[in-house]
Amino acid sequence: MQSLRGGTIKLLLLSCLLAVAPPPTSAQTSSSATSTSHKKKKSHKKTASKRGQQKIDPQRAREIQDALIREHYLNGKATGVWDDTSQKAMQKFQADNGWQSKTTPDSRALIKLGLGPDHEHLLNPESAMTSAPQPAPAQGATPADPAKPHQ
Q1: N or C: which end of the chain has fewer CB within 10 A?
Q2: Mean pLDDT of the chain
Q3: Between the CA of residue 7 and those of 12, 19, 107, what are the distances in Å?
């Protein structure tokens, strides 16, 4: 009789817990059903992110505009706003030099406008490799030493 009472009490407690607990959601029921089978990874769609620099800094835009004005590709004053007029002037400058003109500004164009990289941070800017290396002398030839007189 005691085992019957213990079983009844357990059943009564279980029914009370089920009555108080919220009903399972569809995600809970499907996850419990698939727990014995292989779980598939959910695919997460990545949002398209743009890489690289998205716009030109106002100070840099002003420098480029000043250079384009100096080279007669742009009229007026430098505003620091990279607008359609500035972009078209840069594209024309690049096209006139035989470079790409779809994306702007091109590094070669910036260098030709005098806005290339700054070499002040280099310890030995004269000997730093900032340009293409010179061709090596032919084999067997010895480079002339300016300190030694020619024989």
Answers
A1: C
A2: 74
A3: 9, 18, 83
